[in-house]
């Protein structure tokens, strides 16, 4: 699964960073109160989207780690030998967590959401410096 979505998650991460940065830049430079409120609500929605995306990826990781415990706590001892062997294989596989990665870089976690916001702030600062120089 991760192989098919890792570049999609990387693009999502980059686009969210640039979107938040551009809306931050607009928040700083907007003079109209109505436009400011619209931009503020939009940035809140973008930040929520980032954190929901990161939370979902983190839940996939946490639930995959807990899978081995769930299998062990099931009544596996009442099963046939073939089922016991299959459950043992599943438990061994479940020891390695499933992670959603950002392209070839790092796994998507809750900390990645904070990194996205920090990157967006850096991009907005660069844009603001360029805006002030003109």
Automatic annotation (TrEMBL):
Keywords tagged on the record: Cell membrane, Membrane, Olfaction, Receptor, Sensory transduction, Transducer, Transmembrane, Transmembrane helix
Membrane topology, from the record: Multi-pass membrane protein
Compartments, as annotated in UniProt: Cell membrane
Regions crossing the membrane: 12-30, 36-57
BP-aspect Gene Ontology terms: signal transduction
Signal sequence, renumbered to the chain: none
Annotated InterPro entries: 7tm6_olfct_rcpt
UniProt GO molecular function: odorant binding; olfactory receptor activity
Main location as per UniProt: membrane
Protein's UniProt keywords contain tRNA processing: no
One cellular component term from this protein's GO annotations in UniProt: plasma membrane
Protein name listed in UniProt: Odorant receptor 49b-like
Organism listed in the record: Sitophilus oryzae (Rice weevil)
Taxon lineage: Eukaryota, Metazoa, Ecdysozoa, Arthropoda, Hexapoda
Gene responsible for this protein: LOC115876548
């Amino acid at each position: 699964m991760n192989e098919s979505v890792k570049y999609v998650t990387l693009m999502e991460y980059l686009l969210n960073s640039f979107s938040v940065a551009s809306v931050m830049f607009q928040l700083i430079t907007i003079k109209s109160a109505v436009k400011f409120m619209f931009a503020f609500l939009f940035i809140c929605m973008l930040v929520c989207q980032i954190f929901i995306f990161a939370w979902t990826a983190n839940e996939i990781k946490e639930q995959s780690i807990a899978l081995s415990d769930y299998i062990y706590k099931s009544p596996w001892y009442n099963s046939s030998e073939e089922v016991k062997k299959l459950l043992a294989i599943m438990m061994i596989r479940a020891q390695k967590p499933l992670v959603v990665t950002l392209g070839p870089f790092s796994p998507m976690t809750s900390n990645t959401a904070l990194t996205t916001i920090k990157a967006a702030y850096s991009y907005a600062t660069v844009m603001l410096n360029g805006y002030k120089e003109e």
